[in-house]
Amino acid sequence: MIEVLLFAATSFMIGLSGAMAPGPLLTVTISDSLKKGSKAGPLLVLGHVIGEVLLILLILEGLGWLITSSLASAWVGLIGGAVMIFLGLNMIRDTSSGMESDEFKDFGLVSKGLVTSVSNPYFFIWWGTIGAALMLKGMELAKLTGLAAFLIGHWSSDFAWYGVVSFFSARGKPILKSSYRFIISACGVFLIVVGLYFILTSSITRLIA
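The structure corresponding to this sequence follows.
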């Protein structure tokens, strides 16, 4: 039991180190928290978790090799990069018009978290390598209990970090009122740059090769 708890704690720390790294989901969390409040973070992470559950099912079915293949990475980079650019342009457009885009109105923050996550090719690479290894380690340790320990630890780190980011982003809006539009625009530009990077490095070069 102690080993399982330690494994869960280790999974939490590993997950936290990944969650804290700057990336599209963090950018979207900051942007949407400024616009929609502290509820944005947990809801975006819920969508992120749904994407992870789908990948976990693929890995358990023995298809982990598929999600890390060069062809899959190329297409995810191409499509994902386009999605990132789309999201970034919408952020910039929102600040220019002074109106919030309703592109995800019918889908909600949960779907936005899912789309943002699966648009990132490194999301698949992490789960096909580190994530799969930790899953197997947990199952070797205590079968389904070990797997559950890993998932609880990992998901707790996501909800904890993005919850904190969302809370302080929302609370800081009055203080950042004068620079609110600049921050949102900066987030949009970041997503556009990331999208271009995904397209150029994860797709075109590999397809040409």
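Residues 1 and 107 are 41 Å apart (CA to CA).
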